[in-house]
Structure formats: structure tokens, C-alpha cells
Amino acid sequence: MSNEKKESVSKSVIQIQHVNKTFYQGEVAFPILNDVSFEIAEKKLVTLMGPSGSGKSTLLNILSAIESADSGQINVFGNKLFGANEKELTIYRRKTIGIVFQFFHLFPYLSAIDNVSLPLYLSGISKSVAEAKAKDALSLVGLSHRIDFTPKEMSGGEKQRVSIARAIVHQPKLILADEPTGNLDSGSSEMVIKLFNRCVKELDISVFLVTHNEQIGESGDINLRMLDGKIINK
Ligand SMILES: Nc1ncnc2c1ncn2[C@@H]1O[C@H](COP(=O)(O)OP(=O)(O)OP(=O)(O)O)[C@@H](O)[C@H]1O
């Protein structure tokens, strides 16, 4: 192996090798991921585009440890997901990743600061420390003036910024986002993408996002394309 090759492998923080996933309806098999392999270096904004049904969310759900692969190797920041037990996956979800959803998944009757601090609090951090960290995260996404507002009192863009604050509050290594701008107007979408770029450049958090938006899909450091359960560019 050349030095150059060694260097690129050692700096890869997402390594996916020969991943397969099939869903079944009764006896009928639907292969969704077909021998997916790729590697991503650290501190990158990665976009993933592809036609509806091509397997993007399935791949993201596997990286999020929401779904498991049928076979293959999945190594994310040193966490080997394939074959990991539930305890290891819980620690991975708590420490290594933050998730951002298209429809925010915030508690509608809790304030922004409670939405962001709750996961920390539930993981055993004291309420005062959790709230201090949540305030910092909300300040980072430009919502210091909205910490006591509930999602019901916020715009879509503000709600997505709260969910980004929740995703970064525990200082994860990787944000996984499924259509994070799919429910937003163009101004709010731009702000969300700018925030993700700041996560990469200022906080050293990698971002892996699925999008249907061509412009966003071209704007990453790495722009992957999926077709029929395969990554067709790397
Ligand atoms: N839990 C499941 N059980 C059965 N089939 C599933 C399951 N999850 C996804 N599928 C099927 O797998 C295929 C790929 O779904 P997936 O959500 O990964 O595609 P996608 O590329 O993200 O599509 P979209 O852009 O429409 O969100 C679809 O045909 C879907 O119906």
C-alpha cells in the first residue's frame, strides 16, 4: 500500500464496506442496498442525492443505528456498527452522532431550552449544566432570544435551528440529517446549510445529509449519488 493510500484510509472516519439490506413483504424480497461501499474523511459536509426509493434514508438509518444492515462493515469514528450490541449502539447514539429530522421531532409544549437540554438531562447530566450547554448551543444557532419559546411559537426555520442545537449540544462527531431543508423556504434552507458548514469548519463536526434539492446536493465537500441501492460516484 502506498503512503498516500495509507494516509487516506487512516483519516477516513466513515468506512462503509459491502453493505447490503433487503426488506421483505411476506415472502417477497426487496433488495434496497446492494453492496454499498465508500469512505469519507473527517471534517466534511457530505450530501447524498438520488431518486425516491433508491435507498438514501435506509443508508442514513443504518448510519444512525436506527436500522441494522444484513451484512457488511460499518465503521463510524471507530464504532463498528455491524454486529454491535444494544449497549454499544446506545453509547454510539448518545456520544458520536446527532440526528436532524425533516419534521424536527421537537416536543411541541416544551421551550427551546428544555427541548435542547432534555437529552443531556436524561443521560445523567445535572439540570444546571444541561441548561448551560443548551443555552450555548441555542446561541450558536442564533436563537438566544428564543430560548423560552415553544416550537408552536416558532417558524419552521427556527424549529430546525432548535433541532440542530439539540443535535450538537453533546458535541457529537457526526450529524446525520434526512431532508433537513425539505420543509423549509429557501431563506431558511440557506441558513440551515450555513449552520451545517459552520459545524464542519468551526466545531469539527462532520455532516452527512440526504437531500432532494439539487443546489444543496452540489454544495457539499463530497456529493454522493445513489441509484438502485448503490453509490454511483465516490
Ligand atoms: N422498514 C421497511 N420495510 C419495508 N420496506 C421498506 C422499509 N423502509 C424502506 N422500505 C422501502 O425501501 C425502499 C427505499 O426506501 P428509502 O426510504 O431508503 O428510499 P429513499 O431513497 O430515501 O426515498 P425518498 O427519497 O422517497 O425518501 C423504498 O421502496 C421503501 O418502500
TrEMBL record:
One function term, GO molecular function aspect: ATP binding
A family per Pfam: ABC_tran
Keyword set, alphabetical order: ATP-binding, Nucleotide-binding, Transport
InterPro entries in alphabetical order: AAA+_ATPase, ABC_transporter-like_ATP-bd, ABC_transporter-like_CS, MacB-like_ATP-bd, P-loop_NTPase
Annotated TM spans: none
SUPFAM superfamilies to which the protein is assigned, alphabetical: P-loop containing nucleoside triphosphate hydrolases (SSF52540)
ABC transporter domain segment(s): 14-232
SMART domains to which the protein is assigned, alphabetical: AAA
Protein family: Belongs to the ABC transporter superfamily.
Identification of the protein by name: ABC transporter ATP-binding protein
